[in-house]
């Protein structure tokens, strides 16, 4: 949009009004949005709304694989209930920022959990949602070696030590989010048909649809046998209030989805209703500085440029030699 100096003055008032309607207010949080919706409340402004969005441990991040640190205690995550279709209904909701599926209504017997894989506690699945780009642009939140992927799935879990989400948000390991990146495939991923078909019933904020059927959560993921390769770090929620309470797991194996299935997300949905409806696209936060944090690589994850075996064997020998030598000197 081009504006003369004069035009800008006249436009200031309407823009301010628009900003207050286009965004979304959540309890305890100011108005926020994505740049694709309105530049006035996009990610660069979130820290003005909620101080923690400007913190030192924010998400997402770029995972630089050669800088990750191998952690042999990061073994296979144990997925409980991921292979069963829950009884009852699954409700898909347009919350004005993304499409989200609530998983937490089920009875205790049907709770879906994750444990092990370096997690100190059991975490219960609460919901999943997506972040995506547009027809010409990738839209994942996490990037790997600077590479952004077309879409990202977040499965949000809560530490079962806590009673409520709000309580969990008060503790540094209160939440665990599993993140899966997508890749474009030639064929449709038929396991996504039910979700994709439901999108047209929830084009606007607040609309929800009961999916025709439930299915095992594992249907939405890559082959479970490939999930021992992942990256782990401590970060935050990627939307305001950006609470720094998330144990992140970003999987190496990607989920295939066809271009036409991706396009259904981009072209069917609308953001929070403002002055005029805006297509829900590019609803991702860009990578945040890693600062002093480390990203850990699981036992099986790929670390490019890992030091050759000879160097890792010789170094301790050299060190032993030098220490011996030095102590001889003293
Ligand atoms: C998940 O954990 C809860 C509480 O520990 C338990 O009751 C439930 O059976 C677990 N779910 C599965 C599928 O194992
Ligand atoms: C977007 O993702 C696709 C599929 O993974 C990839 O081929 C392409 O290089 C990506 N584009 C950018 C700009 O990263
Ligand atoms: C979804 O919308 C279609 C029309 O676009 C309609 O036929 C169908 O009944 C709707 N489904 C539900 C569950 O509301
Ligand atoms: Zn998310």
UniProtKB/TrEMBL annotation:
Which spans are transmembrane here?
A: none
Question: Which InterPro entries does this UniProt record tie to the protein?
Answer: CA_dom (IPR001148), CA_dom_sf (IPR036398), Carbonic_anhydrase_a-class (IPR023561), Carbonic_anhydrase_a-class_CS (IPR018338)
Reactions it catalyzes: hydrogencarbonate + H(+) = CO2 + H2O
Residues in Alpha-carbonic anhydrase domain copies: 30-299
Q: Which domain of life is it from?
A: Eukaryota
Q: SUPFAM superfamilies, alphabetically?
A: Carbonic anhydrase (SSF51069)
Keywords, sorted A to Z: Lyase, Metal-binding, Signal, Zinc
User: What does this protein's UniProt record list under function?
Assistant: Reversible hydration of carbon dioxide.
Name the UniProt record assigns to this protein: Carbonic anhydrase
Gene giving rise to this polypeptide: LOC107107569
